[in-house]
Amino acid sequence: MSNPLLEMDGLPPFSRIRPEHVEPAVDQTLAANRARLRTLLDALEGQPTWERLVAPIEAMEERLSRLWSPARHLNAVMNNETLREAYNDCLPKLSEYATELGQHEGLYRAFRAVAETTDRLDGAQRKILDNALRDFRLSGVTLSEAGKARFRAIMQELSTLSSRFEDNVLDATHAWRKHVTDESRLAGLPESDRALARQAAQREGLKGWLFTLEMPSYLAVMTHAADRALRREAHEAYVTRASDQGPHAGRFDNTEVMERILALRHEAARLLGFHSYADYSLATKMARSPKEVLEFLDDLAQRSRPAARRELDELERFARERDGIAGLEAWDVAYYAERLKEQTFSLTQEELKPYFPAPRVLRGLFDVVERLYGIRIEERAGIDAWHPDVRFFEIRDAEGAARGQFYVDLYARPHKRGGAWMDECINRWRRPEGDVDVPVAYLTCNFSPPVGDEPALLTHDEVVTLFHEFGHGLHHMLTRVDHPSVAGINGVEWDAVELPSQLMENWCWQREALDVISGHYRTGEPLPDELFARLDASRTFHAAMQIVRQLEFALFDFRIHAEYDVDRGGCVYDILNEVRDHVAVVRQAPFNRFAHGFTHIFGGGYAAGYYSYKWAEVLSADAFAAFEEAGIFDSTTGRRFLEAILEKGGSRDAMDSFVAFRGREPTIEALLRHSGLAA
Ligand code: ZN
Description:
- It contains 26 helices and 9 strands.
- The protein is of the alpha+beta class.
- The chain binds zinc ion (ZN).
């Protein structure tokens, strides 16, 4: 029986992939790669070269990535018990393989020998070797046999634990639902949110309205439900997910998973001679030391906290005067912020949404990047995908050459992981025979699905999210680098990887761009000037409160990894409380278990790296300032960004790419100005 996951030509045949294909495909490929590696090393005869060693290894890795990417993707967007089990069973095997390669002394020696022949290699090749030698050391190649074995065991356990952490959050998210039959409890909710809740209830064969912790539903309650008790209930369920508190206390509890993850990360870092996991994390980032990261975050906190305090004071005053709220609680903040915003700018998301029907926004996004980068984007029908909602597109450049392809999966549904992200399906790769495989991306969002026959109408925040993720997509797809390990976002320092994505967000706030992005779903009329004026005025509304919130997450993440203590353990909530005292302005409830659901750092790759969002925002704001100076559709500036940053991917240091684009190193001025914090 042929295994569709092992096909190396073309797009993944999604309709034929079954959970039972995953493990055999992984087993078979790992075994083949191991055998191939032995043959390669035997055939070197003391003379390793790029062609005889590194190129075949890139090919091996690409083969593995091709089968694992659709499995990982399906596990995230079409999750079910069998697939989850198959996926989780593979994690330790993949982790073992990765550390085995990383700790392979013969391979390490061979790479060093190739690296010494630098005169015959180009920049991208040299970067691959530098990264590889660094990663060998970070995998423990120089450790004793016992040290290596321990390191391998740690990595394996960590990969299983991260996955369990995410599964717990996903299960906890789906376990909670609020069935409402009394319509008076819906006071304040816009018609579109009611319709969504009605649709959710109907799907379950229920009368009335059903609310869940999926983002569109949860946000609707938090920003619009006048019923304070309903908000509190949803908020409590959300911030206690996968913890020892709240409606499902102890049922999906991540407490021990979290402690174990921190202990293992610390142990691994110490094994390699780092002071802490934070130091280990920075070995692959732009920031040079924990001190530099902490000073950066503290400096921003000092600049933004007084403004955040003023914003909250004003909000408290508003809630008191409007509804007699004496102590503003965490579950009141979004609700009153939205009311205050409505009052100050006479602006509601509901008023904006009709101008942002999903199909129009998507086409508008494509028009914007077509103008900036001289590319063309067209839909292709009849592509084998995993769900009827999915659409597929192709990017061609001015010369008509295919540059990339991508799947778009926009709407929230059950068994789909929350949030929005871009993931790699296929990496750009020049095969040894000379043909180039163009990169393919997945763009996944969780927007409110269309209700009835009308198109999905996006909030402006959702439009911004879509632009953000597409920025990652462009980074992945417009690369010119032929070696997968430094093509696109691969090999890019974590704290620079948000530059292209955050840059894209800026166009969502420009009049000229909104003419292209927006169009009333009935009349096609673009966003009217006076509505734009109010949207624009609202841009920095509560900007400082949002910054201190990001800083709270970033400082918490960095400090729990930097200050881990073997005797005292993770001290997760002690540190979180300290950080909150120091930078936060909104008071959280005692039951708040934010860390238990912080998948970015316990599940995803942001451990001791959450600061990257702000760090990269310095870069993206400064990069956008170049467009502000020359015109936001200036094609010369666009081409420079394309060539200096998007096309180069991870083939050189992020700072070198930035300087190539901007002509100098980044400064923080543009970020402060965009956030309304400039002096
Ligand atoms: Zn991002």
